[in-house]
């Protein structure tokens, strides 16, 4: 009988893969690192807190003693840190097979990054936009490179506030979270289009975890709902692993849980709202992202 659900047991051997996972010290990033390490991948844990990353590394080693893990400092709220990470990574590794743009903040009080960007847009989107551009040449060196960018069902309530990106006029933590997650989805899809137009072999996917019981909920004040609605944390990373390793996926697509309202379940194609498909929006977001970060790539496509 044909299997109708995908789980990490379906992942192939990853012994020859070099994988960068942002935010690998907790939540979905930690689960992804653990499961991919168990398949033999070389995992670069790109984390802001080196103390938390070290504890997470030991946690993985306790379960996967032969795991290949390397901790590298990365603060997505600092363009300088992103530049330094990219430079150090390129000096240390010959290529990059999988880039998992996973790290993120959910609905904090108003604050700004080191470069003056609203924290959620600056970290969740601009940080990953810059990181991806700086690592693109190393991805091209891999045989079958993939980029996975984690969005959210919250993209459905998001808009891109081009006249208020840094919250100078007003701020709503949940609407700005939705903005950052819409930006993640639009970016991943537009990245696919631009890579294809450039003749690149790199594949770009967007994913979302549904509603999973992670540390994001505890820090954003919604953990009271986890007991009733959230799926286990380990299942939240399934769409990311599916996009990163399966032969069934297609570049440019969006994957998430297949359950009711996409809140839980097994990986499948997810719904993309109409706003996220608008060419004018994606082109403007790309241009603004290049201007804000100073990282320009795949322009004019």
SSE layout:
Layout: E1 18-22, H1 27-37, E2 42-47, H2 50-63, E3 68-73, H3 79-92, E4 98-101, H4 119-140, E5 146-150, H5 173-197, E6 203-207, H6 215-220, H7 226-229, H8 233-236, H9 238-245, E7 254-257, E8 267-269, H10 279-293
Parallel strand pairs: 1-2, 1-4, 2-3, 4-5, 5-6, 6-7
Antiparallel strand pairs: 7-8
Helix pairs in contact: 3-4, 4-5, 4-10, 5-10
Characterization of this structure:
With 301 residues, this protein is α/β, with parallel strands linked by helices. It contains ten helices and eight strands. It has an eight-stranded mixed β-sheet, with helices on both faces. 50% of the residues are buried. About 2% of the residues have low confidence.
Q: Main attributes?
A:
globular, eight-stranded mixed beta sheet, 8 strands, 301 residues, alpha/beta
Structural class comes to: alpha/beta
The rounded Rg comes to 18 Å
Terminal CA distance reads 45 Å
What strand order characterises the main sheet? 3-2-1-4-5-6-7-8
Order of helices and strands: EHEHEHEHEHEHHHHEEH
Strand percentage:
5-15%
**Which parts are unreliable, with pLDDT below 50 for 5 consecutive residues or more?**
224-229
Task: Tell me which oligomeric state these chains represent.
Answer: single chain
Number of helices: 10
**Count of DSSP E strands?**
8
- Whole-number mean pLDDT: 92
Helix content, binned percent: 40-55%
Question: Which of globular, elongated, flat, extended, rod-shaped describes the shape?
Answer: globular
Could you give a short account of the major beta sheet?
A: 8 strands, mixed
